[in-house]
Amino acid sequence: MPQLIWTILLMTLGLTCKSQSEGLKFYLQGGVNYNTGTLGVDSALSSASQIIEDINSFSGWHAGLTIREYRSSTQYLSFESLYAYNKTKLTIGAADSLSLPTYQTLTSQTLQLAISPGFRIFKILRAQAGLNGVFQLNNTFKESFDTFKLGYRLGVGLDIFKLTADLAYNASFDPTLGIFEGVPLSNANSQFLLTLGYKF
């Protein structure tokens, strides 16, 4: 993980030093994210003293900065840094069915850093694919699951003057197993992000 952080910082520094170039564009972005694979019950559930009766994942939001270096009229390299927020509500019942269920809310607050090469069509439509690093910031979440996950990012976009719109899909390569409130869970980071941005 330290090598990845240093690599991203050095790339960001290199892009910043070239900020006078016509091919370098900065965008402030924000939007909504919908989780498609947040939490699931691990196969070791039978050994747990509690059971998950229901898992509800709520749509969240994200905001951040995107830098695109346009190499030509058709090719570019994108560096994205986003803060994303999501909540998941769990209904936990006792295995003996004698106790009333309890309700827990697990909040995910992540810093997502992505590097994606892409191409443009008619300077309006875009498509890109790359790597996405997810750093978990919420302490409660980090106590149950790993702090860092590496995954991939796929996306398409539309540029109209200074406005930009993107639809992206972020997913981790492998799920992370963890324990929350005595229940074994599997966390597979997977979400759609709908983002609007403004070039400055």
State the major sheet.
8 strands, antiparallel, barrel
Q: Which spans of ≥5 residues are poorly predicted at pLDDT below 50?
A: 15-21, 41-47
**Strand order of the biggest β-sheet:** 1-3-4-5-6-7-8-11
CATH architecture, by name, is Beta Barrel
Structural class, by secondary structure, is mainly beta
Secondary structure: helix percent: 10-25%
Number of H- or I-type helical stretches:
2
Mean pLDDT across the residues is 78
Percentage of β-strand residues: over 45%
Output the radius of gyration: 19 Å
The figure for the number of domains is 1
How would you explain this protein's 3D organization?
This protein is mainly beta and 200 residues long. It has one domain (23-199): Porin (Beta Barrel), CATH 2.40.160. It contains two helices and eleven strands. The chain has helices spanning 2-17, 139-144; strands spanning 24-35, 39-41, 50-70, 75-94, 102-121, 125-136, 148-160, 163-172, 176-180, 183-187, 190-199. The strands form two sheets. It has an eight-stranded antiparallel β-barrel. A three-stranded antiparallel beta sheet has the order 2-10-9, with no helix packed on it. The radius of gyration is 19 Å and the shape is elongated. The chain starts with a helix and ends with a strand. 28% of the residues are buried.
Provide the descriptors you would attach to this structure in a database record.
Porin, 11 strands, three-stranded antiparallel beta sheet, about 200 residues, mainly beta, elongated, about 65% strand, eight-stranded antiparallel barrel
